[in-house]
Amino acid sequence: MTLDRSDAEGEIARVVRDVRNWGRWGPDDVLGTLNFLDETKRIEAAGLVRRGVTFSLSQAFDTDGPQTGWRRRTNPVHTMTDTGVDAALGNQGFPHGIGGADDVIAMPLQCSTQWDGLGHIFDHGMAWNGRRSEQVVTSEGDLVTGIEHMASQLVGRGVLLDVARHLSADGELEDGYPITVDDLEATIAAQGESARVGRGDILLVRTGRLARAKREGWNGYAGGPSAGLSFTTARWLHAKEVAAVATDTWGFEVRPNEFDEAFQPLHQVVIPNMGLTIGEMWDFDQLAADCAGDGRWDFLLTAPPLRITGAVGSPVNPIAVK
Fold first, then answer.
1. DSSP character for 70?
2. Matching SUPFAM superfamilies, A to Z (predicted)?
């Protein structure tokens, strides 16, 4: 697929016509493509566990994170409300010498490893499944497709496509590189049968952008240039019927975007129109090394969001089990 860089509006509209899933699971649906991830897929995923080794795919949640304050996104602030000092001084008011520690955290829900909920992005004032955006998300939160509906859904077969390892000698794609369907298919072919992608899978795509940030510092990781999925992958994602997609980047899609004037056009297509759940800022590096070592690129993945009523996104600590 070739893109007319000067016609973002037209290109988005044409792709939306081909991939829109409104009504596919009925007028009341709140899960979108997570409907593809059913009991059969979870049984298949459970059978992938052979060694019992686990990998956390989460970045840290601390003040050293990537956020710069754009649109009020800040790094987490962790505060102790009770400490060992309080216990040692005996000022906690507990009997018999018992003491304790407590803490709180304040953070945007999309400041580190996270899921985008279906209420996160709108297209011309429309939310997932053809609902008016103002009737879905208000100051009280997402009244229809809140992230809490996904709390029991995101357990299934994960598939890692290490596109960076396949295309680049150093395992890191250049910033601004758009990952195409050909790149995805070539990576699947190179990685073999365990990398096949299909209905109900949770697709993970590694660009190497986080690995570079670990080595060189954040340097625009949050919001800056990065490799990512090309806008031209939308029809492929739709045809594959994947349940969800996550990347090791801030924006999931390539940045700068592929049009002269656009902001996150792939988001605009896949979230409100396709109903696709997107994960961002995941850490695949240790998992990728293990997959390359044993030649197996699929695994049991458990990645439920926090059950935050009405949220349009959620922190997550995804666990891959091989």
1. G
2. Putative cyclase (SSF102198)
* Cα atoms found within 13 Å of the Cα of residue 94, Cβ hemisphere only: 12
pLDDT digits (tens, 9 = 90+) for 240-273: 999 999 999 999 999 999 999 999 999 999 999 9
Contact 211, 218 (CB under 8 A): no
Q: Enumerate domains of the chain plus CATH numbers.
A: 8-71+109-321 (3.50.30.50), 76-105 (no CATH)
Query: What stretch of H or E contains 136?
Result: helix 133-136
Report the amino acid identity of residue 5. R
Q: Which residues are registered as beta bridge partners of 229?
A: 179, 253
pLDDT tens by residue, 49-100: 999 999 999 999 999 999 999 999 999 999 999 999 999 999 999 999 999 9
Q: What is the pTM of this model?
A: 0.97
Return the amino acid letter for 23.
Answer: G
DSSP 306: P
Q: Are 291 and 162 in contact (CB under 8 A)?
A: yes
Give the helix ranges, DSSP H, for 137-208: 163-167, 181-191
Dihedral pair phi/psi, residue 19, rounded to 5°: -115, -5
Backbone angles phi, psi at 184, to 5 degrees: -65, -45
Structure-token pair, residue 108: 């945007």
Phi, psi angle pair for 290, to nearest 5°: -70, -45
- Classify residue 278 as exposed, middle or buried by CB count within 10 Å of its CB (0-12, 13-18, 19+): buried
- Please check whether residue 266 is in contact with residue 252, taking contact to mean a CB–CB distance below 8 angstroms: yes
